[in-house]
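## Example record

The block below lists the input lines for one assembly entry, exactly as stored, with component labels intact.
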Amino acid sequence: MKPTDISSPVAYATVPTPLTLFWRTFVPYQLLRFLVINVKMLRLIFKSHAPPSDTLPQKPLQ
Amino acid sequence: MAKTVILGAGIAGHTAATLLRKKVGHSHEIVVISPEPEWNWIPSNIWVGVGSMERREVVFPLAPVYARQGIEFRQGRATIIRPEGTDELPRPHVEYTAAGAATEAAPGRETYDYLINATGPKLNFGATPGLGPHGGHSWSVCTADHAVEAARAFRECIDRMKRGENQTLVIGMGHGTCTCEGAAFEYVFNVEHELRRHKVRERARIIFLTNENELGDFGMGGLHLKRGGYVTPSRLFAESLFVERGVEWINRAHVQQVSPGRLAYETVEGLEREIAFDFAMLLPPFRGVGLAAVNRAGTDIAAQLFAPNGFMRVDADYTERPFEDWSPRDWPATYQNPTYANVFAAGIAFAPPHAVSRPLRSPKGTLVAPAVPRTGMTAGIMGRTVAFSIADRIRHGGESPLHRAPFATMGAACVASAGKGLLSGTAATITLYPLVPDYEHYEFGRDLAYTTGEIGLAGHWLKHLLHHMFIYKAKCLPFWSLIPE
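Predicted structure tokens for the full assembly:
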């Protein structure tokens, strides 16, 4: 897409370099990223599942 | 013995039903009423919609799973909630009409001690004239069947390109108040990926038409990420992907009408244009499924139970205020209906108190306001929270404290496919916390330590892994409950 129109947002968009595109599908690097993303996801899941400390359910009635 | 009735068997309803069964054992009754006989892993409908996955890979029948779990299943569509019962049947109950093969059956009713409304949305194609696959002129990927129809039309489009014809494909949102922009985002890049795979990309003009204020808004007001020594808005990453793949975009748009091969739209800036297309996949806006509610005296109490958009009121602050005055504290935490303590809503069925993405209006006054997404991980957490609250009340008494999962402080993980393929696929992986921007605690509204995003093959592998993992979990196969929502 050639940004011929300078009023178009296309003219100001960031574009990945060939090296960036290469890393996106380079299997050894992506295997590492897979591990990193999983760790990030797990951190987020644990944070989302933990109720805020001031709102923990009280001990259930017996 | 307590009886819980769950309306809907999507991510929220199914999660609630299975976890509640696990928590309370088999001495209490659980009934699921859903019009669909199958469970559908909706995120993978994107792949069905471009023909790279079969329908059977994204659905499975619910009845055998529920039979194994000791959950009763009624294939039907709930019509009326009677939270105070009637003179004839004084217990709270729900009326429903049979769906599927049993449509000739007499209307049924189920009494309840606890009710979870997890119906999901009504796909409101009627909001835009000519929108949708049934009687309209555009396709959808909201259901597995819609996705199959979209794939067939897309395949015909590819065949025309292979015969040397140029084609215009419009993908996006079919109304100014739509939600789930992420699904359209995924679909447009999967379409682009498939066109390259079929070696016809140069024959296609692809246009993404969205109600988002900016690309990368996703109905969440966008997000900021740390990258390359800068804190940058998601708009930059989204626009970059569109430019890289040669996909044009029109944002802040409301589709006015879809005609055969042509659609009219207006933008917040006041432009009114038409686009001729050969293929259009436009998602509909959502609204509540249209449940009625009646009290013991026979008075219509729908306005008490439901917001004007048809979604159920829960423990949120629905006071009308200007956008600037809304706060994360307005969002619900227990998903309990404020009028009837034994009624809860989870997933898309609960009424959001306000928009997260700034609502805009066109000069004509048309509302362009992306609604906040509340599907997937958030729906699962809501289903789980409600199930645990009800389980406590069943086991320990009706006054047991409710579990809380404040919507505003939930995180969200989104893996948006940008093309399928073991070595050639890519997906954008986004994590963000909290879901509702909190500018009191975070300079950019969100915690940058938990708000991340990247695109690559690893994301595609993760999306594939999640597909198998969540279908496994939903089938309640061994150790299913170890997989978090």
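Residues 53-62 of chain A have pLDDT under 50 and may be disordered. The interface with chain B takes residues 1, 9-10, 13-16, 21, 23-25, 27, 30-31, 33-34, 36-38, 40-41, 43-45, 47-49, 51-52, 55-58, 60-62 of chain A (CB under 8 Å).
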